[in-house]
Amino acid sequence: MPEVGRLAVCLALLFAAYGVLAGVAGGLRRRAHLVRSAEHAAYAVFGLVVIATAILLRALLRHDFTLEYVAAYSSSTLPTQYTVAALWGGQKGSLLFWSLLLTLFTTIVQVQNRERNRALMPFVTATLMTVAVFFLSLLVFVTDPFERLPVAAREGADLNPLLQNYWMMIHPPSLYTGYVSASVPFAFAIAALATGQLGDQWTRSVRRWALFSWAFLSLGNLLGARWAYEVLGWGGYWAWDPVENAAFMPWLVSTAYLHSVMIQEKRDMLRVWNVVLVLLTFALTIFGTFLTRSGVISSVHSFTQSGLGPFFIGFLVFVLLVAGGLLAYRLPELRTPATMESFLSREAAFLFNNLVLVGIAFAVFWGTVFPVLSEWVRGVKITVGPPFFNRVNAPLGLVLLFLAGVGPAIAWRRASPRNLRRAFAGPVAAGVVAAAALALARVPLGYAFATFALGVFVLGTIGQEFWRGMRARQAMLHESAPRALGRLVGKNRRRYGGYLIHVGVVSIFVAIAGSNAFRIEAQETLKPGDEMAAGKFRLRYERVTSEENAHLSRLAAEVSVWRDGRQIATLAPDAQRGPLPGARLLRSALGAGDAPGLRESARVVALDRRRHHGRRHAGHDVAVGGRAPCGGVRARPSAGAGRVRRTVLALALILAAPAVAATQQEVEESLTCQCGCGLTVHACNHLDCPSGEPMKKEIAGRLARGEDKDAILAAFRTRYGEKVLSSPTFRGFNWLAWVTPFAAILAGASGVTLVIRRWVRAPAPPPAAPSPVAGELRQRLARELEDMDREP
User: Fold this and answer.
1) What does pTM read for this prediction?
2) Fewer CB within 10 A of the end CB, N or C, for the chain?
3) 616-643, pLDDT tens digit by residue?
4) d(C-alpha 760, C-alpha 369), whole Å
5) Helix, strand or coil, per DSSP, at residue 163
């Protein structure tokens, strides 16, 4: 059977290559039979990939350890659901799964467009088959999932315990679905550029596909955050890991496209920009796949190092060259005479929204690749970790949150001062009241304070839109409030669905700000029956339990949580070990597995001064800490386009300024663990980590002796080199890491401002001459009306 699977992949590659040639030839020569032949080839590719996938899945379920892939990623004791998940748990299987999704979506596109978009479909098919050729070539020539072992293994190596989790069943497929479905808008964009059909037809055809891709990218990121919160013991849901960043960047650019395409639909503007966003989204999915599989950047998510990196880079360069060449060729045809009429308009708000989204994507991209760039230039591979990303993106996130409240309320074309007062009086008042309430509650000024106040402002604009729409229907149609609201949303699902998504985004912003600003951390070594304090809570270490089977061993602690003399929760941090050496997973940061005394600690989130609380897991390697800063210092406003350099320097100096009195948590977050996990010392809770715990103890000792943060970081830097720092220093070549994102965003803001100003000041185009056909129709109508008047 494995030989049949390999044959199916080889045949799929041949049919995909034929689909490319037939599609291009049929489109250029307008030969319908070649176009249909290319589509039939796409169907054949899908069928063959289904056969290959079914054979590999059968081998996994039957524990065929003659196959290298089955022996490496499963075992006879692995539960069935994880055996199925092993299909995408390894590099070879995940590439086959990617090909399955790609050919499935290609088939769906062919069925959807049997009678429409016939001029575009030859090149759509050719583009999708080109992508399929690349992935199938990897499976045939580089990483064969049906490779046999010289001697069959007696038992499999098992799936990594990290992956033996419920979220493994839904997180990777969701993310892959978002990645792969981005190929469809890309294919339509290439087809539109190739054929010159650059109107709104192709954007209308891919609108649902773009939403589909964006939805699954969103779901994949959220599920991954939930998985990290539960399993990795990072102390959070996001660690700015390179592979996390790779999944985040296409989501940002796709979000920008979904906003800017509305301007094209309403005003016939930004055609060039929308094509760029579609092409960039697909390119970032390929770049993210490269990061996962190349081994260039260390990541807890990535597959083992392989030789796939050059192939992905080569394909990415090919995509950018072809897409860029077509875009340059069609640039004159993409431009439209439509212009923007005012800075105070929804179009302008959406443009700046796009700037911030793409700016954040660029900042994440820059921070992700800067270690590689530093190694190329200086020969030193530095670390760019959470402190960098938090400080750079926190002010941009606040701007984005503010624009999320401006966009729904401001008018298209031009908003008068009266309209602005009417649109924003209520939301601004709500935000001011929220800020006053936060001040009275003694919430310190900072990112959390600003996020909460802006969140209320955004919710105010959204609530106002629902209220006004409902009242308008009631006044016109005399409907009851529930009926008017239901029909309002039902008749305008796209608009009000977008508002509901904004509510979800506000919730995420508030949750991130709260979990960072009001987190309390404490650490002690306990014996069964001992207690420890964590803020307003008390934790009691009750007992430890163990569980073993042929599949894995598990050690769990039972920790009760108390407040005001009443037990409010029971936590169960645990550690798991796989059957093979090194196959270990630390869940919820439990440590010292077989010792009678257990080092326990807690992370607690107190949401406000009135003891509302959230809870985190108990665990082992957690540093003593007070409140965590939410992303760094407050950002200062821009000085304008003429002061870009001074503004960038000021921002960089602010961001580089050290804290006056650093806590142990801050110092630990400024250092990278040297065990190779890629996490900060504070986040690394890996079992038997040789460097994390000693570094934490040394930091605690140095702080106790009165050393400040700079002295401690200097000592570790002398010992381990610059790579031990979790963010670049603000000097020498590393200065570029901090300055470049802000310089790029300020340059973009200046460019957008100049373009809008030029549009606003441009003279209005002369009125179009009346069409001869329209004049003839008017004369005919007048004659018919006169004849009707003459009739008795």
Assistant:
1) 0.84
2) C
3) 333 333 222 332 323 333 233 333 334 4
4) 38
5) helix
